[in-house]
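Journal club side-thread
Mid-discussion, someone asked how the predicted structure for our own chain would compare to the paper's figures. Pasting it here so we can look after the session.
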Amino acid sequence: MRITQTLVRSGPAVAVAALPLALVAGPAAAATGIDVTTSGATVQVTTSECVTRSSGSMGNASLLSSGQANFAQGRQVTLSGTSSSQSAAWSGVTAGTYTVIVVCADGSTAGTQSVTVSPVSTPTISATASPSRGVMGGMGSTTRDYGGVTYAVGGVLVVAGVGATVWVLRRRSGPGRL
């Protein structure tokens, strides 16, 4: 009984403590109407704020690097998509911190968000030379190219072994032998 009362009493205290966090996070998350993601050297922005078209376009997005102060100075891309979701992307973006701004066709700003692009690491490919004389054989650290004569002698030995086995088994299974 006592445990139940303790849990019931702590519920309002937890709710009161979490309320300021929800109030701070709620408006901040709702204030920006864009979602910016990075993948390697590509930056993509997605929004659902630009629902009206003007001259066939739903708006523009601009990628501003440090030192650029307004929308016109950045790399601009036209938004594409439907009335429920619009997107734009920039490829070949170098490492650094950028600001993405989306302006709808009606002149309203859908949102502004900062994004950091990490340096892209390129894999190093090293080629190794393949043996010029085919497969090598050997014991331990020695290698030697066995020619056709060695393979022919080995084949003869295998055929001789199979023949001898057949001959012995046929002799044993003859009439009167167990």
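Post-session note: Residues 4-31 have pLDDT under 50 and may be disordered.
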